[in-house]
Amino acid sequence: MKRYILSFLLMAPLAALHAADAPGTGDKPLPERCSSKVVVKGGRPRLEINGQPAVENFFVTDAIGSSLDVLPDVAKAGYQVAGIPFHVAKAPRSRGIGPVWAGNRQYDWRSLDERFARVRSLAPGIKVILYLALDAPVSWLKSHPAEVVAYEDGTPEIDDSSSITSMAGASLASEVYLQDVEHLLAEMIAHIDQQPYRDMFMGIHLVGGGDGQWMHWGIKRGKTSDYSAPMRKYFGDFLRQKYRNDPRLLNEAWGQPALAFDTAAIPSVQRRLGAGDFRDPSKEQDVIDFTEAFARVQVDLIRRLAHAVKAASKGRAWVSLYTGSSILDATCYSQNQGCLLQEALLKCPDIDGLTAVTYYQRPLNQPGALALIDGSCRVHGKLAIHEQDIRTYLATLPHDRAAPLHGYTPDWEHQRNMLIREFGRVLTSGIATWQFDMHGGWYSAPEFWNLFSKFHELRAVEARPFSSTAEVAVVVDDISQVYRPQDDRMLQYCSLTLQRTPLGWMGAPYEVYLLADLLKDSTPKYKCYLFLNTYRVDSKRREQIHQRLRQNGAMAVWVYAPGIYCDGTFSTDNIEKLTGFGIARIPTPSPLAVLRGSDHPIVKGLGTVKYGIPGPSGQVNPPAFNGGVFYSPKEQDGVTVLATLESAKAPALAVRKMDGWTSIYSANPLLTAGLLRNIFRQSGGFLYVDDAKTSVCASRNVLSLFAKTTGERTLRLPQDAELQDMLTGERLGTGHEFTLHLKESEARLFRVAHPESKK
């Protein structure tokens, strides 16, 4: 492939440097290329660099100011891998050099070369993941107006503002843009392959679109896209494939005669926002179809870019990207973002790592959580990366310090506990993490680097085989997301995002799976399954779920309206076939439920309290819920009702014995930690603590605790083992029960040594 170089822009000193380092000049030969891969060893995906195990704590440098001054500290602390933000369409702040993407498939590599030279001078041994922003330059947008994202009025908005917040960018459905980026990636890797820094280049983190996470443009300013010609063409091709190129099938599904694939209209913004609880296929199949296509266009783009990197590097280069948050850290805008579908990304052979950040569970009054579908990542051999862009006590921007979801803490003591909490969750989950110094200066104090150095030492425990101790599987479904109205805050936000808080205080570890992966033979069996948003379950999968539950007499917890879509039908009868409960559709404005105060083990000790959505100060408040409808379990033979919807006096929570398994149904989409603890205990699961105010993360070799309040905790282990504090070295002795005094917001991290492991 021909390479376009802007030779008239090359500076003499840099050209001389390249000539001196080029092969065949008589000087030193080029170093060996860096090669990375993810391999499944010892029970989990692991990163290897040049055939050797790597420390899976990464660091990403300043993305806003582009400063690399932190790199000496990064290297000294023991980091092997650094993410280096680099924007192909923006000129760096140095010596008048232009951007890499300089014209119509013309590139100026000087800024890239200088970036690597600077990294080499500050951290010679570091391996670099280019945190590569691939948005098209404004000149490209102006020369390709038909390829630019469009809003409902049909007009693109092209300006020179930041790519992260701009309304304008290439449509993610643009084939022209996609081919140009594929070409750029191939040329960039070919260029790097001939440079003296090729031993540093580990791979690429693909960044682009809204917020750098391949969200559709406009999301950061509350606008809904994409009505461009490329998206219209993509939608037509999607429909042609879905309906087997038969217009009659399309007409029947949409209830509109004389439709053609190429002229099928993108639904209006108002219809995409929707109303009610679910989309009715008899009236809104066009909206369902477009919502799915709007999400699939991102998957198709990412898979092609990942393949371009792998093909150009002959498989040596790492490829990662953002994903996950739209399901597990969801808002009512997730459909607008489009980042809903993850199964295809997990299956993509060209993707090594998936990254996501958690917001709601990050503050110190929260238990912490992952926004990654960690169980599915393990099934597919992908390295999950927990991003920590925590605004530390050194953050200076008012917004960073004011927003609680950013994780700002006022001092080092609190900051240290937050970092230990996050690292404990990572270590016990067998995944990777990176610190992101997004605005620069967040880590410019020695105490951070001392702690990070210790974290690197603790990674040594992962040399042993990873063994999960989780007995709870949390199940989510990506395709189910397209069936609900976009403007429904409750189903998305409360049943997914908020549910991770009581799960975090449950007192036992849990793992998250896509529904499709739950049923694989390689997926472990669990004692308790919590199905959060499984609205579409076909009859074949329903039977597979029941078989999985019967295999070990498991307990299944269903929320709201599981399986209401089945084999092309939309009916409450489908819910009964899946859960065993007859269902009544109950109009009511409030999601609050009241426990009946029964002695049944599921609610014993919880009293007659209300449960629902906790407000900012802990009070129970109903959320914004456009649907105003709940799916209530009927009182019938074999059904024990345990709670009632407050405003409708209809059943809200019920339990039923099934054929070899137990079914629990909750009309309310958000269960409390106390309910979860009782349910889990009744399933035969093991609780590590006696209270619902301690977050517990555990694997066979590591245990992490985080306290919500000050007080003594009784910690129990499934079997006798020796506990040792991994940070202080303190030995707590050997046994299966320990008494600990924890302060509010205190995090502890322990090595768990089993007697047989010492032999």
Strand content: 15-25%
CATH superfamily of the largest domain: Glycosidases
Average pLDDT number: 89
CATH architecture of the largest domain: Alpha-Beta Barrel
Derived from helix and strand composition plus strand pairing, the structural class reads alpha/beta
Number of helices: 22
CATH topology of the largest domain: TIM Barrel
> End-to-end span in angstroms?
59 Å
Main β-sheet, spatial strand arrangement? 15-14-16-17-28-27-26-21-22
Report the principal-axis shape: globular
Q: Over all CA atoms, what is the radius of gyration? A: 27 Å
* Biggest sheet details: 9 strands, mixed
Q: List the domain count as a whole number.
A: 3
Top CATH class of the largest domain: Alpha Beta
Description:
The protein is of the alpha/beta class. The protein has three domains: 345 residues, TIM Barrel (Alpha-Beta Barrel), CATH 3.20.20; 155 residues, Class I glutamine amidotransferase (GATase) domain (Rossmann fold, 3-Layer(aba) Sandwich), CATH 3.40.50; 65 residues, Sandwich (Immunoglobulin-like), CATH 2.60.40.1180. The protein is globular. The N and C termini lie far apart (59 Å).
Summarize the structure.
The protein is of the alpha/beta class and 759 residues long. The protein contains 22 helices and 33 strands.
